[in-house]
Structure prediction request, 263 residues.
Amino acid sequence: MNNSKQPIGIFDSGVGGLTVWKELVKVLPNESVIYYADNKHCPYGPKSKDEIIKLASNVVDFLIEKKCKIVIVACNTATAAAIDFLRANYDIPFIGMEPAVKPAALNTKTKSIAVLATEGTFNGKLYIETSRKFACDVELNIQVGDKLVDIVEKGLVNEQSTKKHLEKMVESLIKKNIDHLVLGCTHYPFLTGVLKEVLPENVEIINPAPAVIKQTQRILKANNLVNNLFAKPAYEFFVSGDSAVLKNILKEITSLSYKVINL
Ligand code: DGL
Prediction:
C-alpha cells in the first residue's frame, strides 16, 4: 500500500516545534500535518532519559493511530533521549533535531562559536558526537538556556525581564568573542528578535529548522512518501495542556486554516 497521502506527524514538549512546523508547511505545501504539543509535561529538559522515552512513545502511539507516515521529533531534548528507541521500536521513519554545529564551525571567522540548548540536549550522545566531529579546531562554548522554554511557553518573549535575562546569559559568550550562536532547542527561534538586541551585530543566529525540513524532504523521497496530490492539506494541532499560547503563536505565524484540539 502507498502511504503518501497520509499526514506527517510532528511533536514537541510544547510550542517550540511550531518553528519547525512553519518551515515544513512552507517547503512541503501538499502535505497534511498533525502537530502534537505535549505541554502538559513541559519542560522535557530536566527529565530523565527514561521519562522522556515514555512520553515520546505515548505521543508517537497517538500519531501512528492518526495514520502518520513519518514523524518529525521537533524537540532537541526528545531527539537526544529517545530517537534511538523510537527508530528501534516503530516501523515508520523518524527525523530528529541536531544542533547545527557544522555550519557554525565551517563559517566562523573568530574561531569561537556557541550552542544554546537544554541540559538534556547537552547530555545526549548525539550532541557530544556532533561537536567532536565538526568543532575540533574552533572554540565551542556551551550555554544552558535556563528558563527559556518556560518563558516561551508562558508567552513572555517580549517582556523587559526576558531581555534582561538573556543579556546576562550571553554576557560570557560575548567575552569569548563568538560570531555564531547555534539555537539547539526549537523553542529558542521565538527569542531571535530579543537575542539580536543583546548580541553584537556580527553574531549570526542559526535556526536548525530549514536543515531539518530539507532532511525530511530527502527521507520522504527516499521512502516514496511524497504527497504529489494537489488537494488542500489539513493542519491539526493536538494539545495535552493549555492551548492559549499555542493559539496566539499560530495567529502570528500563519494565515493558513487549521484546527486546535484540546486533549
Ligand atoms: N523544544 C524543546 C527542545 O528543542 C524544549 C525542551 C524542553 O521541553 O525542555 O529541546
User: Anything to note?
Assistant: The CA atoms of residues 38 and 63 lie 12 Å apart. DSSP finds eleven helices and ten strands in the chain. The chain has a mean pLDDT of 95. The first strand starts at residue 8 and ends at 12.
